[in-house]
């Protein structure tokens, strides 16, 4: 199938999913999310695919939601229908990756921010270029982490660092992410593609059912309440998208100025 915002390629047992909106640092729109979902639930789930690699085209992995594109309005109040987008687009991608009975590797080639960071953290193994960085930048526009980050991040880094990332929204360098346990490997930028390719080829040649069993058991141990947590994120985020702070945060982002939050 041909896609507009993602690229799917399969070679033998390896499937390669490239986020392909490079002009926007692969920011998420409704179409982008829908195509990601189609790949995760369709091509990537095919039994002929034994391992999946996810990476970004251009200079980044994913900069998060495309705020300039906006959100569909809720029919009741005309405000952003964030809950619909999370349930309909984002969550099937995130949960789908966790439930794929095969290894999924992220090759983070640049910024992974917001839902882009969540997507990377949802993968089983994460490789990062030295120049890459991660950030739960939701707070900068008056929102909270979503896409499963309130699940994946504390499981990886613990309480203190999870709160630091969520409340401060600061960049976490690739080196720091490795030290904190957010990623598995960091490579010089010019080696990332080759190292990621070698790893996913190794996994594709391995014992697929063993990987599937390990993934199912580890999911149950580490993320037993994934669906409930995603639902909670959606409810809280939907409420936050109706605040004055969210309106101010988005306006400030678009206008490239510091936000003036009021707490309302």
Topology of helices and strands:
Layout lengths: L5 E6 L2 E6 L10 H12 L9 E6 L25 H18 L4 E5 L3 E2 L1 H8 L2 E5 L3 E3 L13 H9 L1 H10 L3 E2 H7 L4 E3 L1 H16 L3 H15 L3 H15 L3 H12 L9
Parallel strand pairs: 2-3, 3-4, 4-6, 5-7, 6-9
Antiparallel strand pairs: 1-2, 7-8
Helix pairs in contact: 1-2, 2-3, 2-9, 4-5
Task: Provide a short characterization of the protein structure.
By secondary structure, the chain is α/β, with parallel strands linked by helices.
Give descriptors for this structure.
globular; alpha/beta; 9 strands; single chain; three-stranded mixed β-sheet; 46% helix; six-stranded mixed β-sheet
User: What is the distance, rounded to the nearest whole angstrom, between the alpha carbons of the first and last residues?
Assistant: 45 Å
Number of continuous helical runs:
10
Pattern of helices and strands: EEHEHEEHEEHHEHEHHHH
- In total, how many beta strands? 9
Shape: globular
Provide the structure class: alpha/beta
Approximately how much helix is present in the residues?
A: 40-55%
| Main β-sheet description | 6 strands, mixed
Strand content of the residues, in percent?
A: 5-15%
Average pLDDT rating: 95
Strands side by side in the biggest sheet: 1-2-3-4-6-9
Low-confidence stretches: none
Our Rg estimate from Cα atoms comes to: 18 Å
Q: How would you describe this structure to a colleague?
A:
By secondary structure, the chain is of the alpha/beta class. Helices cover 46% and strands 14% of the residues. The protein has helices spanning 30-41, 82-99, 115-122, 149-157, 159-168, 174-180, 189-204, 208-222, 226-240, 244-255; strands at residues 6-11, 14-19, 51-56, 104-108, 112-113, 125-129, 133-135, 172-173, 185-187. Strand 1 (6-11) and strand 2 (14-19) form a beta hairpin.
């Amino acid at each position: 199938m041909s896609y507009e915002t993602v690229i799917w390629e399969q070679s033998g047992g390896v499937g390669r999913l490239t986020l392909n909106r490079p002009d926007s640092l692969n920011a998420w729109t409704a179409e982008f999310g829908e195509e990601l979902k189609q790949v995760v639930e369709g091509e990537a789930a095919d039994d002929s695919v034994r391992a999946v690699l996810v990476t970004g085209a251009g200079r980044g992995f994913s900069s998060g939601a495309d705020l300039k594109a906006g959100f569909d309005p809720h029919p009741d109040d005309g405000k952003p229908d964030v809950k619909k987008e999370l349930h309909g687009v984002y969550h099937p991608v995130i949960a789908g990756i966790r439930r794929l009975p095969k290894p999924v590797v992220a090759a983070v080639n640049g910024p992974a921010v917001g839902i882009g960071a969540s997507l990377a953290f949802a993968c089983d193994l994460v490789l990062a270029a030295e120049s890459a960085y991660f950030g739960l930048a939701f707070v900068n526009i008056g929102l909270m982490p979503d896409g499963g980050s309130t699940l994946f991040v504390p499981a990886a880094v613990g309480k203190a660092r999870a709160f630091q990332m969520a409340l401060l929204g600061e960049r976490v360098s690739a080196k720091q992410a490795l030290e904190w346990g957010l990623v598995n490997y960091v490579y010089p930028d010019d080696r990332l593609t080759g190292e990621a390719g070698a790893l996913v080829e190794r996994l594709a040649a391995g014992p697929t059912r063993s990987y599937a069993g390990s993934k199912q058991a580890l999911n149950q141990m580490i993320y037993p309440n994934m669906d409930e947590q995603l639902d909670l994120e959606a409810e809280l985020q939907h409420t936050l998208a109706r605040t004055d702070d969210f309106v101010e945060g988005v306006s400030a982002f678009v206008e490239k100025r510091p936000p003036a939050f009021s707490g309302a």
